[in-house]
DNA sequence: CCGTTTGGTAAGGGTAATGTGCAAGA
DNA sequence: ATCTTGCACATTACCCTTACCAAACG
């Protein structure tokens, strides 16, 4: 059915206050509203309530039923006494692309809410009628559907879960309750009145779905794990004794009702296990065709009552029947062909072509259609999962990044089989490397906040940035990684994800430190990357030079990354650890004045082609900034105009260390990534082509580039050549880079080596 | 009293991840 | 001959929706 789009790129936003958007680790937009200009926050009431709510509503005030883009907003007070606040916004209603024409303007309004503990009532209808509906009957559902409402179904995304958890947390805080289980399992209905409604706010799911989710989450008899043989025995006894009273059985076993119910479904007395006999297969096929009124050879992947099938087959459970049919028999019956490596590449390409921001948006039925080696849409999806797992940290990277990485990986494999086969000397067994690539990792490079360097983290401009390193986890000794760095979500992102940056003055006009805001933990996943705030007047094509410092690398790495943004021009350069002091006070930022046009393909199309195998692998950056100024307004079209790809070339040498990291449990991901990040030594050499444009330095009156800074041409100092001692220092220091520049072939192979890792 | 709202259960279709057996290759 | 590895298939814990029910509410 319907799904929710959170494609903020297409949402038009107008701010009515001086605010800064940032993005949290899950892609939620955070709106920062500093307290220094409170009178603008609410025009109707000069007294500042401690609580405010941000409300997004369509400008033309469409009727509630009109499926207007709804963005739910959660206000987070930063502290009791602090009048500033944060707002988390999540788009919750699907909006067709064509509805997002220029005319659709969503306005942000800061509203007041005196009641600390009330989150939802105001604007409930605008936000989501769905989330306040229990959906008791089919009529309820139809009624909402007819009114144009759509809602999310299927697996909950991480974003949704986080919203839910946030809501619950705030509900608890507001009422001084420590543990949500008190409400969920101990309170009477009356006592927890409005609990579910309140916490459902911001979620475009029926109330009942929220209720179920919450019960499961907080039921500690859920997620208990594998059933022991003793438990199975006891379960059998209890089943005989209590029948289908799952609650009672579950209580006796210390398991949730749904858990014991599900387990019972798996254990039919008559069930065979292991390989299917021919007789069983034949019977399954007959039954399926009979019950679905289809002929042998017909493709049947849906509308099968597996319980009924299992009943008729007799020797297998419904799940066994379903699995056998969808993963093998259906395909065999309809004369399917074998799945090949080409199919695998094809799948990646096809998914990439879909250009969906979220994996959940993939229509597997459509994708599987007419594809003879695909056994079923369900099977294709599981195939995708196995492909995905070739990227060890696939969970930590956004979907587009993952796709990009996989594309590179497979392209690379296709074009350089020899290199893969020659891969040796790393001390790692390399058998079958050429046929299967495992445990490639998309590197997550993060610029972490460092309060020692960043005295006012909230004050400055913040830019969500993606930097992802595709690399091998293989060789601890050596390696050169290919790198593409993407600021914000470009179409060409292959890299990692930074939560948000802000710019910090360095003492040099126009030279800034680029730093992340605090409190954003890993793993960082930008599923949707909405607008990025970047200081510049939206209409002005001026260039900003940003001298960025990566605190992450203060300790043990040197890291030069330069980003050139065409419109507006932004050069972001991260600098070497040991040169921090210099960087802060230095007067000039070097840009290599040798222009290597040939090294610097034209964006954006060339980037794709250039990305990996054909050339010397070169790290790249793409920046796609948009703006958030004092009062900014960007439509879909505008933001497209504003988002100009920036290409930066950087070459790096990364010494990989810990190769044991494979797929850590999610709760360890943070440590894992961090650890990973500490290891590499990254040296970026930058060759920029400025074309015939002038580099400009933009000073900011605030000391940092603030969202409200209006940067006009007069405030921009033209500069043609910049010198950066740090940069030069690194050039001298880095023999590797010099060597790699001199020997493109070896560089290439080395890169490939590193990209592809076998265990 | 009665229609509506809210909270709840059972059944069953499904997904995501792990386990297992086996063939191919080193 | 033996070990390793990758793969396909099998299994299973958990997830989600639907349909239906009943108590509480207004």
UniProtKB/TrEMBL annotation:
Annotated Myb-like domain residues: 268-329
PROSITE patterns named among the record's database cross-references: HTH_MYB, MYB_LIKE
Amino acid composition bias (Acidic residues), ranges on this chain: 37-47
Keyword line: Activator, Cell cycle, DNA-binding, Nucleus, Repeat, Transcription, Transcription regulation
Residue ranges of every copy of the HTH myb-type domain listed in the record: 268-333
SMART domains reported for this sequence: SANT
Region (Disordered): 24-51, 595-614, 739-759
Pfam families found in the cross-reference section: DMTF1_N, Myb_DNA-binding
Leader peptide range in chain numbering: none
Gene Ontology, cellular component aspect: cytosol; nucleoplasm
Keyword Cytoplasm: no
SUPFAM superfamilies assigned: Homeodomain-like (SSF46689)
Keyword Coiled coil in annotation: no
Highest taxon of source: Eukaryota
GO molecular function annotations of the record: DNA-binding transcription activator activity, RNA polymerase II-specific; RNA polymerase II cis-regulatory region sequence-specific DNA binding
UniProt subcellular location: Nucleus
Subunit structure of this chain's protein: Interacts with the D-type cyclins CCND1, CCND2 and CCND3. Interaction with D-type cyclins may modulate transcriptional activation by this protein.
Family: Belongs to the DMTF1 family.
Protein name: Cyclin-D-binding Myb-like transcription factor 1
Organism: Mesocricetus auratus
Gene from which this protein is expressed: Dmtf1
């Amino acid at each position: 059915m319907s799904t929710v789009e959170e494609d903020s790129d297409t949402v038009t936003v107008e701010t009515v206050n001086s605010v800064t958007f940032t993005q949290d680790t899950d892609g939620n937009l955070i709106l920062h509203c500093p307290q220094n200009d409170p009178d603008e926050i609410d025009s109707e009431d000069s007294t500042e309530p401690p609580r405010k709510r941000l409300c997004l509503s369509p400008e033309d005030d469409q009727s509630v039923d009109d499926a207007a883009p709804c963005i739910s907003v959660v206000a987070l007070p930063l502290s009791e006494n602090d009048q500033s606040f944060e707002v988390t916004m999540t788009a919750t209603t699907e909006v067709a692309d064509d509805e997002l024409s220029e005319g659709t303007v969503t306005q942000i309004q800061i509203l007041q809410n005196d009641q600390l503990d009330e989150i939802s009532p105001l604007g409930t209808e605008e936000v989501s009628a769905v989330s306040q509906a229990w959906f008791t009957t089919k009529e309820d559902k139809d009624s909402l559907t007819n009114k144009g409402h759509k809602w999310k179904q299927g697996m909950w995304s991480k974003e949704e879960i986080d919203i839910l958890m946030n809501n619950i947390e705030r509900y608890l805080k507001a009422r001084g309750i420590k543990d949500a289980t008190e409400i969920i399992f101990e309170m009477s209905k009356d006592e927890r009145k409005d609990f579910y409604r309140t916490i459902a706010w911001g979620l475009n799911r029926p109330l009942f779905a929220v209720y179920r989710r919450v019960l499961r989450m907080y039921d500690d008899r859920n997620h208990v794990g594998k059933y022991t043989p003793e438990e199975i025995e006891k379960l059998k006894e209890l089943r005989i004794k209590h029948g289908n009273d799952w609650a009672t059985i579950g209580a006796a076993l210390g398991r949730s009702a749904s858990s014991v119910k599900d387990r019972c479904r798996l254990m039919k007395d008559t069930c065979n296990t292991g390989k299917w006999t021919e007789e069983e297969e034949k019977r399954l096929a007959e039954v399926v065709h009979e019950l679905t009124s289809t002929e042998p050879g017909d493709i049947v992947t849906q509308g099968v009552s597996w319980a009924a099938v299992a009943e008729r087959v007799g020797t297998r459970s419904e799940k066994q029947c379903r699995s056998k049919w969808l993963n093998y028999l259906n395909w065999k019956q309809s004369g399917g062909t074998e799945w090949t490596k080409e199919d695998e590449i094809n799948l990646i390409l096809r998914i990439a072509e879909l250009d969906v921001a979220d994996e959940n948006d993939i229509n597997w039925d459509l994708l599987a259609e007419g594809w003879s080696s695909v056994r079923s849409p369900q099977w294709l999806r599981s195939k995708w999962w196995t492909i995905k797992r070739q990227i060890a940290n696939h969970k930590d990277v956004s979907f587009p990044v993952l796709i990009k990485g996989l594309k590179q990986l497979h392209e690379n494999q296709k074009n350089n089989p020899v290199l893969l086969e020659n891969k040796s000397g790393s001390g790692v067994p390399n058998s079958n490397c050429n046929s299967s690539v495992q445990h490639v990792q998309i590197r997550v490079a993060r610029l972490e906040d460092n309060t020692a360097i960043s005295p006012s983290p909230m004050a400055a401009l913040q830019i969500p940035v993606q930097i992802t390193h595709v690399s091998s986890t293989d060789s601890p000794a050596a390696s050169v990684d290919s790198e593409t760095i993407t600021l914000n979500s470009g179409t060409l992102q292959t890299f990692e994800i930074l939560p948000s940056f802000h710019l910090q003055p360095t003492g040099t006009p126009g030279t800034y430190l680029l730093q992340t805001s605090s409190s954003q933990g890993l793993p960082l996943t930008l599923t949707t990357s909405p607008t990025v705030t970047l200081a510049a007047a939206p209409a002005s094509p001026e260039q900003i030079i940003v001298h960025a410092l990566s605190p992450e690398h203060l300790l043990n790495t040197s890291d030069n990354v330069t980003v050139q943004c065409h419109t507006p021009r932004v050069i972001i350069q991260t600098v070497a650890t040991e040169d921090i002091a210099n960087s802060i006070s230095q007067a000039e930022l070097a840009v290599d004045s040798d222009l290597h046009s040939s090294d610097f393909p034209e964006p954006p199309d060339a980037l794709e082609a250039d990305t990996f195998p054909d050339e010397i692998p070169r790290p790249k950056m793409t920046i796609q900034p948009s703006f958030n100024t004092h009062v900014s307004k960007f439509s879909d079209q505008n933001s497209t105009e504003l988002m100009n790809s920036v290409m930066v070339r950087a070459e790096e040498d990364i010494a990989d260390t810990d190769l044991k990291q494979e797929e850590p449990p999610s709760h360890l991901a943070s440590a894992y990534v961090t650890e990973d990040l500490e290891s590499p030594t990254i040296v970026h050499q930058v060759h920029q082509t400025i074309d015939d444009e002038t580099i400009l330095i933009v000073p900011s009156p605030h000391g940092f580039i603030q969202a409200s800074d209006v940067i006009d041409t007069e405030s921009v100092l033209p500069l043609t050549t910049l010198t950066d001692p740090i940069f030069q220092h690194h050039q001298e220091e880095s023999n590797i880079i010099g060597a790699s520049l001199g020997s493109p072939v070896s560089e290439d192979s080395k890169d490939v080596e590193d990209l592809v890792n076998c265990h």
